[in-house]
């Protein structure tokens, strides 16, 4: 009952159910884990941290509990503790199969890197790779040579942006035989080892460089639509599962934004947007322009160029605000917590 209530967003009632369950089975680790998730979704971080720790005390090897404890610690500002717990991600069901296995050791943040070669490899989605790429200069400045492997669609943008790094498409086929580096590191661990540098850099400047010719092309296309402030918008993910749907919004909920005068809106959704755009035009008289020639899903390099040509990007928690902010465009993120 607690799980179902949490899934439909009834967090307070879910907590009541979990506590009832614990009154019947006081040492049931999974119930403490589920209770911690519900408390975290309510923003009750310290309570969630204590409950996750209780779950871990009962089942010390529960990787999911360790990882979610890490999220709660990070959200409460306890960054070092949170990042250490997040290393458990490789033992979770979700990520255990994505881990790469090399003959060379994973860098531990301590061994000297001068005159060494390191491989940094992407581990999760496009948005995560773009986000964590802001940390690449921290590691590349410490080694003789840095290899960075990422998703195919990011290679052109990253090659242009990181001239002193060897950017390649991800290739797992020869992992156990490779001899072209001394250490490796998954991208998500960059934060852990460079937390001091990241924390001292309060205002990150743009770090991805779009294609100048394409930026100029998109500026001309925008100007052809008329005078105004050019605002790109994104409101949902291609993954609209029940677990993730609370991160997104119906396009109609953007109506207060649409009422701002002298604004020309540009679609930045990559999938399933045609029906939404027609609905907004029919119900509210708002035209959101879409460039049919742009492949929003696969041509990330051109999406970055379009974002660089815009004045502002307004988005929910999708990959779009990570692209637009990384190229230096003013970006507003609408998040539910």
What is the number of domains?
3
The CATH class label of the largest domain is Alpha Beta
What are the segments in which pLDDT stays under 50 over at least 5 consecutive residues?
none
What integer is the average pLDDT? 93
Molecular shape? flat
Helix percent band: 40-55%
- Span between N and C termini? 24 Å
Main sheet makeup: 5 strands, parallel
**Alpha-beta classification:** alpha/beta
CATH topology name of the largest domain, in short, is Rossmann fold
Give the count of helical stretches.
Answer: 16
Strand content: 5-15%
Please provide a written account of the structure.
The chain is of the alpha/beta class and about 325 residues long. It has 3 domains: about 1-90, Alpha Horseshoe (Serine Threonine Protein Phosphatase 5, Tetratricopeptide repeat); about 100-200, Rossmann fold (3-Layer(aba) Sandwich); about 210-335, Glycogen Phosphorylase B (Rossmann fold). About 40% of the residues lie in helices and about 10% in strands. The chain has 16 helices and 9 strands. The protein has helices at about 1-5, 10-25, 30-40, 45-60, 65-75, 80-85, 125-130, 135-140, 155-160, 190-195, 195-200, 210-225, 255-260, 275-285, 300-310, 320-325, and strands at about 115-120, 145-150, 165-170, 185, 230-235, 265, 290, 310-315, 330-335. A 5-stranded parallel beta sheet has the order 7-6-5-8-9. Strands 3-2-1-4 form a 4-stranded parallel beta sheet. The longest helix is centred in the N-terminal third of the chain and has 14 residues, at about 10-25. The radius of gyration is 22 Å and the shape is flat. The model has no long low-confidence stretch (mean pLDDT about 95).
């Amino acid at each position: 009952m607690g799980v179902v209530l949490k899934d439909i967003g009834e967090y307070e009632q879910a907590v009541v159910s979990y506590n009832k369950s614990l009154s019947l089975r006081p040492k049931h680790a999974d119930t403490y884990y589920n209770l911690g998730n519900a408390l975290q979704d309510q923003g009750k971080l310290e309570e969630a941290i204590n409950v996750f720790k209780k779950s871990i005390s009962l089942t010390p090897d529960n990787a999911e509990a360790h990882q979610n404890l890490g999220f709660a610690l990070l959200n409460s500002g306890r960054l070092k503790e949170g990042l250490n717990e997040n290393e458990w991600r490789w033992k979770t069901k979700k990520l255990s199969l994505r881990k790469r296995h090399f003959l060379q050791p994973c860098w531990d943040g301590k061994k000297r890197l001068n005159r060494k070669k390191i491989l940094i490899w992407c581990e999760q989605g496009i948005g995560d790779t773009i986000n964590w790429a802001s940390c690449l200069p921290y590691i590349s400045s410490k080694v003789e040579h840095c290899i960075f492997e990422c998703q195919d669609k990011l290679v052109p943008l990253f090659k242009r942006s990181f001239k002193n790094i060897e950017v390649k498409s991800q290739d797992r086929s020869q992992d156990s035989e490779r001899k072209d580096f001394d250490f490796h590191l998954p991208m998500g661990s960059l934060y852990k080892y460079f937390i001091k540098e990241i924390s001292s850099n309060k205002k990150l400047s743009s770090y991805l460089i779009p294609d100048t010719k394409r930026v100029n092309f998109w500026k001309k296309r925008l100007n052809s639509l008329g005078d105004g402030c050019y605002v790109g918008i994104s409101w949902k993910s291609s993954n609209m599962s029940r677990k993730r749907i609370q991160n997104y919004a119906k396009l109609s909920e953007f109506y207060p934004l649409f009422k701002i005068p002298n604004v020309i809106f540009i679609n930045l959704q990559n999938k399933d947007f045609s029906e939404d755009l027609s609905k907004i035009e029919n119900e509210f008289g708002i035209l959101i322009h879409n460039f049919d020639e742009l492949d929003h899903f696969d041509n990330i390099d051109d999406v970055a160029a379009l974002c660089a040509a815009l004045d502002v990007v307004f988005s929910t928690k999708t990959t779009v605000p990570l692209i637009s902010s990384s190229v230096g465009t003013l970006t507003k993120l609408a998040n539910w917590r």
